[in-house]
Amino acid sequence: VSAKVIGEVRALNIFPIIPYGILAVFYMFWISVALHLFSSGQVVQNNCNSNCCAYDLLEKKVICDRCCGYSIHYTPHVGAAILFHLFGCYWATQFFLACSSTVIAGSVASYYWAHGEASPEIPFLSVFSSMKRLMLYNLGSVALGSLIVSFVESIRFLLESIRRKLKVSTHVPDSMIGKAAYQSSQCFQRSIEWTIKSVNRNAYIMIAITGKSFFKASAIATELIMSNILRIGRVNVIGDVILFLGKLCVSLSSAVFAFFMLDTHKYRSAHNKISSPLLPVVVCWTLGYVVATLFFAVVEMSIETIILSFCQDSEEHGTAQYAPPLLIETLGDQNEMQRLTQGPQ
Fold it and tell me: Can you give the pTM of this predicted structure?
């Protein structure tokens, strides 16, 4: 069903280029501002009478009998600006990815709730219609959701830094305070991971389906997942395996194609000769896997949207009235399939 949706809504095939292109432009500006911020500190000479270890470039070794050298000091305002700039980068990244997920979910959901038919309810460029709905109605919810995810990830990063400073990352300390700190950090980390998983992708899907705010959509998604845990878990496990095999096949095909291309006469003689094809093949394999991940993310998002739409349809109408026969045969009950194929008695 997901493949049929992508085949009908053809704009989804090239849609990943748009959000990641926007992210590329954003990173250009972000790196430029970051260079200005990090270069705005004051270069101060260290106290040569202090004892510390420093690497001497002339002698090419570490010397620990003096502390001469230079260090960069930032004012509190510049330090706060650097922290805000780093947090803003992560927030903006999460925001653009959330917008991308919401647009894909809106396009797929419009196909599902229109009985999967090429009706006027599904415009030819449904992706752009979904983008219009996002800009008009759901942009605030997506911004709030990405902010919450970024804030939670920042707390997780701080807890992990504290845990490393306490040196409890690999073993449990003997002291009571160390054990308490270790158990607390582990508990908070698990809670943060669970929160991120529960409010991330599924909340954006329900925002696109129902038009609710982030918190209401997250509650609806959590309730649907808990009430249909076996049905959703069965499809997700099989789907994840198939998607991983698809990514692996695409990346390996890229690597094999690069190897055969480099094995030609053009790259084995004269000034184009390559001593070893290992590095170019590995680079092509990595790039192939990255590109495959970007485009397979559309398929993955389509699958999750169809599953949650099916569950929402079943919750609202008792039976999935808008689902296509193939989906009912896979996810629905046998009596639903008979009702759809035989018609009313």
Answer: 0.76
